[in-house]
Amino acid sequence: MKLRRILSLDGGGIRGLVTCRWLGAVDSSLAAAGKAHIPGSFDLIAGSSTGGLIACGLALGHPPDALADLYRTRRHDIFPGMARRLWSRATRLLSDGPSAPRYDGRGLEAVLADVFGDARLGDCRVPTLVPSYDVISRKPVMFKSFKPEHADLRVRDVCRATTAAPTYFPAHPLRVEGRDCALIDGGVVANNPTACAIAEALRKDETVTGTRDLVVVSVGSGERTRPIDLRSAREWGALEWAIPIIDVLFDGNAESVDYIAQHIVGDAYFRLQAALTTGLDDLDDVSDTNIAALETLAQSYSRLPATQQALAALARQL
């Protein structure tokens, strides 16, 4: 198995809509160049958190536009509004205490069940890599569709695990390789899983012998630009940092991996990413206004001459 052509997808909650729209632009460029649609033009697809959901969807044959429609039509099921959240919190008060996750995860699980049914990870049409983190063993779990021990895991369980962002969703219980795990968001391991995918491609038992053999496409979900002022960063304690620290860790992880990939892959590394204006960066803002703004951001970036040139160059290299 030669894992040379890599597609990597960042996390980002509802901003997975942006990822899907940019993937649609990649797909259009491939078609214009006479190449196979996603996933046929790639040897390995990796995705963390919401990117893991998209990666599995692509690998099972769902086109980018269909996955984008999923974010639009089922967003209120995944991230329920205030009334449903308050009711859920009230019903969980005795079992979970006053500091429960923002969402109970039932809506997300229902959506994953509808989309993936009983599909197994081994059903993926191309090798697929999805990170998560087990808080019991305190170790990463790298779900691999091409690993025999993972082939029979349900895709919806893998996606539920990799999207279990702390403070947003509860950890997901799953038995993996004979061990009981409590799994949380893949973003705490690799919100940008590009480095994990490159490492997989360069395994000693594979036929890719160096980074010069690789073509890597890394798709973000929008880059946060909202500043945290010095006074806040100096004065905040555990309570104030609880949610912002998740965003900071996810962003720092993604940017450091981008830096590494640029330097080791070079001209065959393509990164699709754009700055988010303040107000578009929340993981769970599913308001009509935010969705429309995300769509506009994705479309504007796709139409930039520099983006079009990069997509054309990518299609040639693939």
UniProtKB/TrEMBL annotation:
Gene3D superfamilies: Cytosolic phospholipase A2 catalytic domain (3.40.1090.10). A motif (GXSXG) lies at residues 47-51. The keyword GTP-binding does not apply. It comes from the Bacteria. Residues 7-198 form the PNPLA domain. GO terms for biological process: lipid catabolic process. This is Patatin-like phospholipase family protein. Belongs to the patatin family. It comes from Cognatilysobacter lacus. Keywords: Hydrolase, Lipid degradation, Lipid metabolism. GO terms for molecular function: monoacylglycerol lipase activity; phospholipase activity.
